[in-house]
Amino acid sequence: MIRFLILFSIFGYSTSLFSFFQQNQQHENHVPNAPQNVRVKTQSTSATLWWDAPPDPTILIRGYTVEYGEGSISQRIVIEGSDSSSFTINRLNPDTNYVFAVSAYNEADGEDGTKVMLAAKTLVAEGSSAEKLWPPTTVRAKIEENGAAYVSWEDPNPNAVSHRQYVVNYGIHESEIQQKVRSNAKYVRLNGLSPGKEYEVSVKVVSEDGNESPWSIRDLFLVPEVKNSDIRSKFDWICRINDTEMCSIETSDHWKLCAEKHDFYTQRQSGACPRAQYPSSPAHLTTPIIHFPDAQSLCFHMRYALLNFHPAQMKVELFEKADFKKRHILWKTRMENVKQHVIQNVYIPFSKQISEFKVSVSLKWESQHMPRIIMHQMDIYSGGCPEKSTG
C-alpha cells in the first residue's frame, strides 16, 4: 500500500489534500463537544495549554478558543484550524492565580462548544527583584495640519532595560472602543482620527521578557473640525491590518482581527477575516473619511486572499460627502474569478475628489455561507496607481 500526502502551496498559502477530503465528510449540525485531556504548565510569565480533539470525528471543527484571566475570564484568543493542539500565553504576571478555558468551535448555532475550565498559578520570577518598570511620563499629543496626532513621551526606566517596546492605547474619550499600536521609539503618529472629537491616549512599557509597566496618566486632546479646504492632506492613507490595528476602518459585525499563523498546514499573515458566527449578507470594510483635494488622480489598493470559496460578489464603492449616501461602483468581481490561497493585489484608479469621501469593500453572498476572505491591506494613494493596475 502506498501512503502519500499531497501538499499544495501557492504564494505563501498551503493546505492539506487529506484534510480537504476529511472535512467534506464532516458536518456542522451542532457545535463540537469539549476538547479532551486539557492540561496546563506555567512558567513565571507564561502558560502553555495542550489538548486533544473532541471525540466525535463526524463534527467539523474550524478551530479552538483559549480564554484566560486573573481569577476570572477576561481575555479571549481564537485559534483557526482543526489541527491545533497547543497554545502558549505570554506576558502573564509572576506568582499569580489564573483561570483558563479551552473550547472548540465551528459555524453551527452557538459559536463555541463546551468549555473545559482549569486553574493554575504562575511561578515566582527568578531572582525576584524582577525589575518593576515605571510607566512613561510627560505623554503629550500634538495635532498636525493633516489631522493626525503626534504622540510623544518620556521613559523614566534605566537604560539597562533593553529591547523594550511601548504600547499606545487611544480612542475617543469615555468610549468603550479603544485601539492599541506598538512602537519601538518614544513617539507614534496616530492617523484616521475623527474631526471634532476629544481623544484620550496612554502608554505603557513592555520589556523583552514580557514584564510590563502600569499605564501612564492619560492625556486628552481635541481633533479640530475641518471647516474649510485650506487644511489639505499631503499624505497617502496606508492601512496594514495586524493583530491590534484596524486603522479606524468601519466594519460590519462579520469581521474580526486574525493573527498571523505559521505551521505545517497554513502560512498566513495577519488581517481581517470572518467570525465563526456572523450575521446575514452583506459584509463591508469601509475606510475612514479621506480628504485629498490636491490630488489630481487617486488609486485604491487592497491586498487580500480567498481562503474558502462560496458563491458571492465583491464590490468596491466610492461614497461622496453628502451624508456619504451617494455612491459609485469603482470595481466588482465574482468569487468564481478569484483563485483560492493566492494573495490578490488589486489597484483601482478613480478620479479627483475635491470633497471628503470614503471607499468601501463589500461582500454579498448567495448561500448561507460567507466566503472566507482575509483582508491584509487597504490603501488610498494620492498619486495614482502603478502602470499595471486593475481598472
Automatic annotation (TrEMBL):
Residues 1-16 form the signal peptide. SUPFAM superfamilies: Fibronectin type III. CDD domains: FN3. It comes from the Eukaryota. Residues 31-127, 135-226 form the Fibronectin type-III domain. SMART domains: FN3. Gene3D superfamilies: Immunoglobulins. Keywords: Repeat, Signal. This is Fibronectin type-III domain-containing protein. It comes from Caenorhabditis angaria.
